[in-house]
Amino acid sequence: MLCFPPREDIPLRRSPLTEVICQVRFPPILRIGSEDPFEFQETIRARFPRLEMGYGVEIRLAQPEEESPSAKSLSRICRFRSRDGATIVSLGIDFYALSTRAYSHWGDFSDLLGFVSHAATTVYDLPYSTRIGLRYVNRLSLDNTRLTSVPEMLNVLRPELTSLLRVDCWDEPLEMLSRLLLSGQDGEKLTLRSGFQGEDQTFLLDFDYYVEQETPLDQVLTLAKRYHEVIYHAFRWCIREGQLTVFDPVVIEKET
Hints:
This protein is of the alpha+beta class. It has 7 helices and 9 strands. 24% of the residues are buried.
């Protein structure tokens, strides 16, 4: 069971957060793949006016008895972008998703998620979800930490996350990637991917909290809010005590 200490959600002026994604999966609906999404587009077009349509591709690595990898085209995916292109609604035969690279705070993202969820469930009469997931992708860099060296940047993180980068037998590692799967409550899971890219001098903190079971769609916002809180507490656990200041936190004065 997860037991990250609860922390106050503090806005950061130089946040390492690069993308937030919430995806809701449901049983496949052939109508979505066989007709253009006229009604869905009209429902969300005021906020997401830019339309892109394409097909997903599944890459399959070659097996020992095969000569080369294979690829097959998947069902159509429609993407509706905001005017600035930073926020996207994706719609496929068995999922809808909201993603943004311009995250400000949970309230704004939650409002958009409610708007998109209502549109999808109303237009397509969705029965229930089979998977609800919320993902936060962070990349620490010398730029957003305002530090001058990789060792200083790594010192921002808990040593449990960086121990393989601090070994006497080597220096200047080129790459490291780890994946930790943790059990949450009621069958939920948290995947924590962490890693280092020497070429870019960045450190990845990628949190994906999800549940894979039949869930009423009217619980999407409630679950997503709780997932957000768990992920934030996990992020704060990853940052060493006193090191959040490198991201220039916003000090909010409380009324007396």
